[in-house]
Amino acid sequence: MSVAEEIVASVRDEGLLAAGRPVLVMLSGGRDSTCLLDVAVTVAGTPVVTALHVNYGLRDAAAADEQHCRSLCERLGVELAVTRPVAPTLGNLQAWARDARYGAAAQLSSERGADVAAGHTATDQVETILYRLASSPSRRALLGMRPRDGALVRPLLGFTREQTGAHCIERGLEWRDDESNDTDLYARGRVRNRLVPALREIHPGAERNLLALAATLRDEADVLDALVDQELVGRSEIELRRLRELPVGVARLVVQRLADQVGGRPTPGTARRLSDILALRDVGPTHVDLPGGVRATANDGLLEFSPTPGDPPRGAPDAAPDP
Fold it and tell me: Which pLDDT does position 321 carry in this prediction?
């Protein structure tokens, strides 16, 4: 079985893409998203596949990248949507680009009743875990990306960047390389070009071991989530008295879940403020402001979470690279 046949068979069996189910493929023009678009056409069928290309206009090659995506979609018979957001003059440019990309995908996929497919690979998974492990003191750093997060699917997580490239070569599909991936300008590039090679020198199976660990921890995270579900039973509040009775590890998970629900996405840092939350008074109203624009308020011992007045909740942007 060729690499291309193996990838198609695996994606079909996993069910993240299915025949006749609408899907919006996020298409940068790189090897991973090019592979994904071809796989989506093969598995789901051309009529239900749409591609989205975001032209940020930040690189000299941006126009050529867009034209490449147009030519690829024309060859595969896929409808292409292109958006050209205006970059801000201040702030985190990478975070803005992620928000622009996923925002455009969410709007378009909602209009079409489609899943959103991203071309993240096992190689990206390793880089993401290492980046998050270094930048965040959270257990979620080690969980990595899940194959499905709501409407977002990642059908290529079981394959490496080398395999997606092999798929494209077998299928006669060209791709575009982003030269910024080969520099150390951003933290992601330093992880890719320096940290991952160093781990390979320590142990040739380092990447494989890291992926296996993440998979195990995701299974265990499902158990922990079930404990939180059992404790909250769908509620958006909890008695301080009960929270203090829980094992510290479970209490952290409970307050983090309640905080995350406020903004509808992860709000890092709440669990680390557990001691401040437990110290709230049991009588009268009292509150503590937490990271991510979230406020924990206790009213006569009943703990609830809400947006901090004047500071909307902010979630952590996905640290995965643009496929």
Answer: 46
Residue 249: name the closest of 228, 226, 279 by CA: 228
Contact yes or no for 90/52 (Cβ under 8 A): no
Nearest residue to 199 (alpha-carbon basis) of 155, 103, 134: 134
- What does the block give as tokens for 81? 């949507």
Q: 29: left (phi > 0), else alpha (psi -120 to 50), else beta? A: left
Overall residue count recorded for the chain in this entry: 323
- Gap between the Cα atoms of 48 and 41, Å rounded: 8
Cβ proximity of 171 and 72 under 8 Å:
no
Model pTM above 0.70 = yes
Judge whether 38 and 46 are in contact, CB under 8 Å.
no
CA 182 to CA 19: how far, in whole Å? 37
72, amino acid identity: L
Which pLDDT tens digit goes with each residue over 230-279?
Answer: 999 999 999 999 999 999 999 999 999 999 999 787 888 899 999 999 99
Task: Give the tokens for residue 103.
Answer: 């925002």
3-state secondary structure 189-257: HHHHHHHHHHHHHHCCCHHHHHHHHHHHHHHHHHHHHHHHHHHHCCCCEEEHHHHHHCCHHHHHHHHHH
Q: How far is CA 263 from CA 5, 74, 177, 198, in A?
A: 41, 39, 35, 38
Q: Of the candidates 153, 196, 166, 176, which has an alpha carbon nearest to the alpha carbon of residue 60?
A: 176
Cα separation, 143 vs 185, in Å, equals 26
Nearest 10 degrees: Cα torsion 132, 39, 172, 177: -20
- Which ranges in the chain belong to alpha helices (H)? 3-14, 31-44, 62-76, 93-112, 122-135, 161-171, 187-190, 196-202, 206-232, 240-245, 248-263, 274-278
Distance CA 225, CA 217 (A): 12
What is the SS3 assignment for 271? Answer: helix
- Could you give all domains of the chain from N- to C-terminal order, each with its CATH number? 3-202 (3.40.50.620), 235-307 (3.30.465.60)
| Residue 303 to residue 258: CA distance in whole angstroms | 10
